[in-house]
Inverse folding.
C-alpha cells in the first residue's frame, strides 16, 4: 500500500524561486527516466511551461504571495513489486482530488522505493480560489489513496470515457490559457518567466516532456504524515 505525505516548508520560505527550484528537482531526468522515457506529466498544465502556467494563474487572480505551492509525495514500500508506469498513473489519479488546480506529477525510480512527487499550484486556475490543506483535506486524501491504488489504469469503455472527458477538459484549459496569454507582466516577473525546457509529447490524458536539469537540493522539514522518504 502506498503512503502519502506532504513536505512541510517553513513559513516565509516559499517564493517564485523556491517553486521553480522544487520543479527542477522533481523533474530531473536521471530520477524519472524509465525505459527511455521520463515519467513526468502535467495536469491542467504542460510540462515544458509548467512554471509559467503556475505563475500566470497567480498573476491572473492577483494571488502571488503566501503559500505558492503544495508538495505531496506518494511512496511505495521498499522492494514492493510496483510497475513504475502504474505508480505514475496512481499518482495522477490521486492528484485528481485537486480539481481545477495545476499539478506537476513526477515519478522517481532511482531509489529502492518508487515514489511520485506532486507539485500543486495553490491557486485554482478555474475559480481563482486559493487552496488550503487542513486536517480534513489530508484525511480525505488518505481515504482516496488505497482506492486509487486498486483501480489501476483504465481500459476499454472506461478508458474511452475518460479520454473524451480529458479532451473536453483540455479545451476549457486552452481557453483559459488563451485569456492568460493577454496578461502583461511587470518587469520584475519577466526575468523569472523562463521555460523549464524539454520537448512536449502528447499522450491520451496528459502532456509530458523530457527535461534534463542539474541536481538541486531542497530543504525538507517536518512532514504532516509519515512516509518512505523522497
Amino acid at each position: 500500500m502506498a503512503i502519502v505525505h506532504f513536505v512541510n516548508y517553513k513559513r516565509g520560505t516559499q517564493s517564485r524561486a523556491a517553486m521553480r527550484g522544487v520543479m527542477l528537482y522533481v523533474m530531473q531526468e536521471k530520477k524519472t527516466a524509465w525505459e527511455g522515457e521520463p515519467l513526468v506529466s502535467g495536469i491542467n498544465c504542460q510540462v515544458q511551461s509548467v512554471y509559467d502556467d503556475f505563475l500566470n494563474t497567480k498573476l491572473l487572480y492577483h494571488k502571488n504571495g503566501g503559500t505558492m505551492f503544495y508538495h505531496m509525495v506518494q511512496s511505495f514500500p521498499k522492494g514492493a513489486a510496483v510497475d513504475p508506469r502504474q505508480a505514475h498513473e496512481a499518482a495522477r489519479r490521486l492528484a485528481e482530488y485537486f480539481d481545477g488546480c495545476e499539478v506537476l506529477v513526477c515519478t522517481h525510480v532511482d531509489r529502492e522505493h518508487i515514489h511520485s512527487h506532486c507539485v500543486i499550484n495553490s491557486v485554482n486556475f478555474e475559480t481563482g480560489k486559493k487552496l488550503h490543506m487542513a486536517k480534513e483535506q489530508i484525511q480525505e486524501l488518505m481515504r482516496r489513496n488505497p482506492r486509487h491504488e486498486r483501480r489501476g489504469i483504465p481500459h476499454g469503455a472506461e478508458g474511452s470515457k475518460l479520454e473524451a472527458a480529458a479532451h473536453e477538459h483540455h479545451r476549457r484549459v486552452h481557453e483559459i490559457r488563451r485569456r492568460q496569454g493577454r496578461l502583461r507582466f511587470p518587469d520584475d516577473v519577466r526575468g523569472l518567466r523562463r521555460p523549464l525546457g524539454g520537448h512536449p509529447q502528447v499522450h491520451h490524458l496528459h502532456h509530458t516532456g523530457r527535461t534534463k536539469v542539474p541536481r538541486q537540493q531542497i530543504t525538507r522539514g517536518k512532514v504532516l504524515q509519515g512516509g518512505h522518504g523522497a
Observations:
- Confidence is low (pLDDT under 50) at residues 147-167, 184-194, 197-229.
- The helical segments are 16-26, 29-32, 50-60, 84-95, 135-151, 156-180, 187-190.
- Residues 58 and 64 are 5 Å apart (CA to CA).
- The first strand starts at residue 3 and ends at 6.
